[in-house]
Amino acid sequence: MKLTSVALTGAALGLAHATPVTKRQAISDADILNYALTLEHLEANFYAEGLKNYTHQDFISAGYMDPFYANLQTIASDEQTHVQFLTSALTAAGANPVAACNYSFTSTDVKSFLALGSVLEGVGVSAYLGAAASIMNGTYLTAAASILTVEARHSAYLRSYLGESPVPQPFDDPLNFDEVYTVASPFIASCPSSNGKLPVKAFPSLTPTSSGSVMSGAKVQLMTGSGFNSSMDMSDIFAAFITVTGPVFTPLMSSGGGMFTVTVPSGVAGQSYVVLTMGNTTVTDDTIVAGPAILEVGAMMGGITGGCSKSKTWSMSGSSSMSMMMPTASPSMSMSMSGSSTMPSGSMSSSSMMPSKSPVFNSASGISPSGAISVLMAAVAAFFM
């Protein structure tokens, strides 16, 4: 059968200056594929621009030794392959794939580029996770899930090199369509008019006033953006941290002028999302008044800790994709991931990394990225015959 309902033929998560659509339209599986494609366009263009702006030597000079640059090229190739796959799948289904937009990324050097890349990968994981419950077709669900797992690997790899825990908690946090729209729209400058409008809305922005990781129990100041109704009754406004098991509510202190202070609750870790919402019983698109804001919450003791050291490396022996360095328990020991069931804790600086002896991945079982797309697309095309 052919899919004919394609409401989401708009820009990558939204035009920066578009008027939000306040009434939710029905979202089909084809819409969700286009939603995923908008994310992949954004990520693919982000890596293409970064690898054009920063050379191999720039990464070496910043402390990111080989094979990191080659692995980053693999990540970039993955994102482009996702774009090709989703575009072909939508075309095979008789839908109109969204085109890439013009983007505005804020990185100024290698480290800020990687930091933003890590955030985008985390948002990608949360977006796929949040969309999964809306996918009705099993074939589409499998395709989306296969991309989600790869995005999670990208996220873990970058987090480790930034000195953050690659696995900060046992569950990832889902974001819904409007929440992702709100987070991603600042990176979009303009989109082709042929992309049309999105059946989503943006909430007023919410951003932390300082950068860096925070711990549970810390107080964080948040600033709202334009569109926030500062005249509403603040006595019923709470902060809610989004988790897969439900929102974690915490009291909010207003400083006036759209500024608020919130205490980070226990039970959240890693790349976390907080919204301002009416009441403390549920969080929906109808109750959110600002956000999400993105906070990096430090993992508690006992979790896997990221970071690489020149004398503490693990070689991912037998890896099918990227060569990844991780710290070992002993400063003088190099350990293979093969057969290892646990990873030691300990935080290292990413500025003192040394090359891994692991081979750089080029292709799996001799199948090129374009060949893999052909195999996947053949399966999708067969379904729609």
Q: Looking at the structure, what is the overall shape?
A: globular
Order of helices and strands: HHHEHHHEEEEEEEEEEEH
Helix content: 25-40%
Strand content: 5-15%
Q: Major β-sheet, in short?
A: 4 strands, antiparallel
**Low-pLDDT residue spans:** 1-24, 309-385
Q: Per CATH, which architecture of the largest domain?
A: Up-down Bundle
Give the CATH class of the largest domain. Answer: Mainly Alpha
What is the averaged pLDDT score?
77
Let me know the number of strands: 12
CATH topology of the largest domain: Ferritin
Characterize the structure shown.
- This protein has helices spanning about 30-55, 55-60, 70-90, 110-130, 140-160, 175-185, 370-385; strands at about 100-105, 190, 205-210, 220-225, 235-240, 250, 250-255, 260-265, 270-280, 290-295, 315, 335.
- The protein has 2 domains: about 30-200 and about 365-385, Ferritin (Up-down Bundle), CATH 1.20.1260; about 205-295, Immunoglobulins (Immunoglobulin-like, Sandwich).
- The chain contains 7 helices and 12 strands.
- A hairpin with a 2-residue loop joins strand 7 and strand 8.
- Helix 1 (about 30-55) packs antiparallel against helix 3 (about 70-90), helix 1 runs antiparallel to helix 4 (about 110-130) and helix 4 runs antiparallel to helix 5.
- The model is unreliable at about 1-25 and about 310-385 (pLDDT under 50).
- It is α+β, with helices and mostly antiparallel strands.
